[in-house]
Amino acid sequence: MSRITSLVATLGTLTLFACVAGPEDPSLAALAVGDYWFTGEDTTKPGAFYIGPRPDGSRSMKALCEAATPTCTGSGCIAREVLDRYGWCDGSAKDTAQVNRLNAMSRADAEAIASALNARLQFVAFTSKGGPAGLFPEGSGSVDPYLDGAVLKAVCDENPTEATSTFKRVCEFEESQCRRGECTAMALVWTADEATVGATLANRLFLSRRR
User: Fold this and answer.
1) Claim to verify: residue 103 and residue 67 sit in the same structural domain
2) What mean pLDDT is predicted for residues 63-77?
3) Which of 105, 120, 143, 199 is exposed most, by the fewest CB atoms within 10 A?
4) For 19-28, how does the pLDDT look when each residue is reduced to its tens digit (9 = 90+)?
5) pLDDT tens for residues 163-187?
6) Segments forming the whole domain that contains residue 145
C-alpha cells in the first residue's frame, strides 16, 4: 500500500486493520463518499486487487455470504460465485495462502464485493463475553465493523460534544496515538457504553456523507 502504515492482527475470527492517514490513504477517499470499505491494487503485483479493511470473518461478510445466491443482484447483493472464487465465505484467513488469495482479486470482483458491503454498512456495538489472552475482557465493548484509524478520527472530529463526554477517553487516546504517528485505538479496551456511542456516531457520520 502506498504511503500507508498498516497494522493487521488476527485474533480468532476477528481481523483488525488500521491505517495511518496520509495524502494517498484510500480510506480517506472512501470516507468522503460514505464508504467504509475501499479497494486498491497491490503495487508489487499489477492486476491483483484487495479490499481494505479486510472483511474476512467479519459480521458484515457473514451477512453478505448468507444473502448471496447464484442470481443475487441489486444493491447490497452479489452472486455467491464471486465470493466463493476467493473463499470469502470460509471465515477468517488462517494462513498466508488464504491471505494471498483474498488480496489477489480482479478489479471488477474487488469493486463489486466492496460495493455490496458498503451498501449494507451498519455499525453495531457488542459487549464481550471474554476473549483470548485477556484482550477482550468480559463486559468490554467493541464495534463491528471495526472503528479505528481515519474513521475514528472523523467520528471524534465531527462530534466535539460527545468527544468531551461518554466518548472522551476513546478520542483522547486516538489523538495521542496520532501525535505519535499511529492513528489507532487498537490498544485501548473500550467500555460497553463507549462502543454503543461509537456505533451510533459512526452510523450518523456515514449516513451524512452519503446524502
Assistant:
1) yes
2) 84
3) 120
4) 344 446 778 8
5) 668 889 999 888 888 888 877 777 7
6) 124-210
From CA 46, how far away is CA 124, in angstroms rounded?
35
3-state SS of the chain is CCCCCEEEEEECCEEEEEECCCCCCHHHHHHHCCCCCEEEECCCCCCCEEEECCCCCCHHHHHHHHHCCCCCCCCCCCCHHHHHCCCHHHCCCCCHHHHHHHCCECHHHHHHHHHHHHHCCCCEEEECCCCHHHCCCCCEEEEECCCCHHHHHHHHHCCCCHHHCCCHHHHHHHHHHHHCCCCCCCCCCEEHHHHHHHHHHHHHHHHHHHC
Which cell is 70 given? 447464484
Same domain, 111 and 50: yes
Cα separation, 93 vs 101, whole angstroms: 9
Residue 15 backbone phi and psi in degrees, to 5: -110, 125
**Domain assignment of residue 131, yes or no:** yes
Contact 147, 123 (CB under 8 A): yes
The residue among 109, 33, 34 whose CA lies nearest residue 78 is 109
